[in-house]
Amino acid sequence: MRAPSKRTRRIAVGSAGPVAVLLAGVLVWQGSNAAFTTETFNAGNNWQAGSVALSNDGTGGAMFSLTGLTPGATGSKCIVVTATSTVAGLVKTYVQNPTANGLENNIDVTIEQGTGGTYADCTGFSATATAAAQPLATLFASNTSYATGLLPWTKGTGAGSKTYRFTWTFDTTGLSQAQVNALQGTSVRADFEWELQNS
């Protein structure tokens, strides 16, 4: 086997320096890549919408389903409204689906808000707020949406209840006998609604 020539030896020796520098750089890079590291994290992030719910202790029927009324007749019934929510809000009551068939100006309704009593039984009811007596016709004109709702009730989170007492009167004050007679057979219908909106 031939020994390397002088020229080959010179090339090998001349290349040794750059190769050594290159190898040293690789070792430094590897050493830097293995430096101390640390990290931190916050796991399990989640977003869930709040919820609001309203219910009442009614049996699904109307509080009032009356026939054969005569002038001066009156009556009261109660209903308990319960709000259950994970967010704070405001509850209001208003009239929906009005049907006016001639008696809307003569049935005055007073709505009270308070505690005690149950559906159709106002025993133990105590008022904390009252909406003034007014004909159903007035409610039909001015209280048919949440924006114009009555007896606002500030509701926090969790469950809470209010009792509402509705008192009606067949009022013919100031009418002539002919006008009173003209009310025979007339009627009026409405739904009472409660709505909770979160604040």
Architecture overview:
This protein has 199 residues and is of the alpha+beta class. The chain has 2 domains: 30 residues, no CATH class; 147 residues, Immunoglobulin-like (Sandwich), CATH 2.60.40. It has 3 helices and 8 strands; from the N terminus they run H-E-E-E-E-E-H-E-E-H-E. A 5-stranded antiparallel sheet has the order 1-2-7-4-5. It has a 3-stranded antiparallel sheet with strand order 6-3-8.
Q: In short, what is this structure?
A:
This protein is of the alpha+beta class and 199 residues long.
Label this structure with key terms.
alpha+beta, Immunoglobulin-like, 2 domains, five-stranded antiparallel β-sheet, three-stranded antiparallel β-sheet, 3 helices, elongated
Q: Which helices and strands, and how do they pair?
A:
Blueprint: H1 6-33, E1 52-56, E2 74-85, E3 89-101, E4 107-115, E5 126-135, H2 136-142, E6 150-155, E7 158-170, H3 177-181, E8 187-198
Antiparallel strand pairs: 1-2, 2-7, 3-6, 3-8, 4-5, 4-7
What's the CATH class label of the largest domain? Answer: Mainly Beta
Strand element count: 8
List low-confidence stretches. Answer: none
- CATH-defined topology of the largest domain: Immunoglobulin-like
| Spatial ordering of strands, largest sheet | 1-2-7-4-5
Distinct helical segment count: 3
Can you write the helix and strand succession as a string?
HEEEEEHEEHE
Would you tell me the structural class of the helices and strands? alpha+beta
Helix content: 10-25%
Number of structurally distinct domains:
2
Q: Which oligomeric state applies?
A: single chain
Mean pLDDT: 86
Radius of gyration: 41 Å
